[in-house]
Specification:
Helix content: 40-55%
Distance between the termini: 73 Å
Number of strands: 8
Largest sheet: 6 strands, mixed
Strand content: 35-45%
Number of helices: 4
Order of helices and strands: HHHEEEEHEEEE
């Protein structure tokens, strides 16, 4: 019995070291991801300039932006409500971003942001209604770009 106790302690020690090595490996991966973001444009600076300077904003919008437009939803007697997927042109996005600027100033609307390392979501909405707009941004080549736009006016 006395011989088993040191063996059990040794086995427990081995498992503890293995677990620490896995945690150390994961920490290394986090560091690599962080290093990839070094020198990236800070989202807070980008979004402030994006909303204040429409010329700058249009440099960060692609010619075509995938998204959703609830005005295009139709009722089909077999399928139910369908449609809504939409590709916004750059000119349409200019108009939509101007509308969002007006909505941000309206006291009935709320604005929230979800920011991750390489993506961000702006959420403009009237609480407890179907009126909501999502503007999705993605970090590309260390700069933020609008990549998706969803307009829901239900």
């Amino acid at each position: 019995m006395r011989k088993i106790i040191p063996i059990l302690i040794f086995v427990c020690f081995c498992f503890a070291c293995t677990d620490n090595k896995q945690n150390a490996d994961n920490a290394g991966n986090d560091t690599i991801n962080s290093e990839a973001l070094i020198g990236a444009e800070p989202f807070s600076e980008f979004i402030e300039k994006f909303h204040k300077d429409s010329l700058f904003a249009m440099t960060r919008v692609e010619e075509k932006t995938e998204g959703f437009n609830s005005d295009l939803i139709v009722y089909d007697s077999i399928e139910g409500y369908v449609g809504g997927e939409y590709t916004w042109s750059k000119n349409e996005m200019r108009d939509e971003l101007y509308l969002c600027k007006i909505l941000r100033k309206d006291k009935n609307y709320k604005v929230d942001f979800e920011v991750k390392a390489d993506s961000a979501l702006e959420h403009i909405y009237i609480p407890e209604t179907g009126s909501v707009t999502y503007i999705k941004f993605k970090l590309k080549s260390k700069k933020w770009y609008l990549v998706e736009y969803e307009s829901n006016n239900l």
